[in-house]
Specification:
- By secondary structure, the chain is mainly α.
- The chain is 58% helix and 4% strand.
- The chain has a two-stranded antiparallel ribbon.
- Helix 2 crosses helix 4 and helix 3 packs across helix 4.
- The chain is elongated, with a radius of gyration of 30 Å.
- The N and C termini lie far apart (73 Å).
Length: 169
């Protein structure tokens, strides 16, 4: 009976040794991955610091009115603030603003998304109308337009709170 217990203990010890060896390999791989990530973070922080220093020097050399970033299709919509030019918006958003501002100067009331779509010269198929509606809502959420209770949009600017001042799509 003691020999059976001794044999069972030997099997258990051998199994634990194998498990410990396997875990040592897993630990070593995890430590290597951790080291790589630490190095990558340090490199990124260093590169960003150099980039920030360079862009600060460029921004200080460029007049204030030109400091707004150039828009790109699919770019985020910055919250409106006093002095922010329309040119920070992507072309699609600028066109929607243009249609509504032209309507305001012609003393037309607020426009629905379908009417904006027609003014933009787009087909009035549901996909196009919904795309325009989505962009107009985004402009309204960021303070570039006013969305009426009826769902129509009109030209107008208003300050909006910026949570965490992070960009949003």
């Amino acid at each position: 009976m003691l020999e059976e217990r001794e044999a069972a203990a030997r099997v258990r010890v051998e199994g634990l040794r194998e498990e410990a060896a396997r875990l040592a390999g897993v630990l070593e791989a995890a430590e290597i991955e951790l080291d790589r990530r630490v190095i990558a973070r340090e490199e990124l922080v260093e590169a960003l610091a150099v980039s920030a220093a360079a862009s600060t020097a460029v921004i200080e050399a460029v007049p204030e009115r030109e400091s707004a970033p150039a828009p790109m299709p699919g770019s985020t919509v910055a919250p409106w603030r006093e002095g922010l030019p329309v040119t920070v918006l992507a072309p699609d958003y600028q066109q929607i603003l243009g249609v509504l501002e032209a309507g305001r100067s012609a003393d037309r009331g607020p426009l629905k998304a379908r009417e904006i779509t027609v003014e933009l010269g787009l087909q009035t198929i549901p996909a196009k109308v919904e795309g325009v509606r989505s962009k107009a809502r985004r402009l309204a959420e960021r303070g570039w337009l006013v969305q009426e209770a009826s769902g129509a949009f009109s030209a107008g600017r208003r300050l909006v709170p910026v949570p965490d001042a992070g960009p949003s799509a």
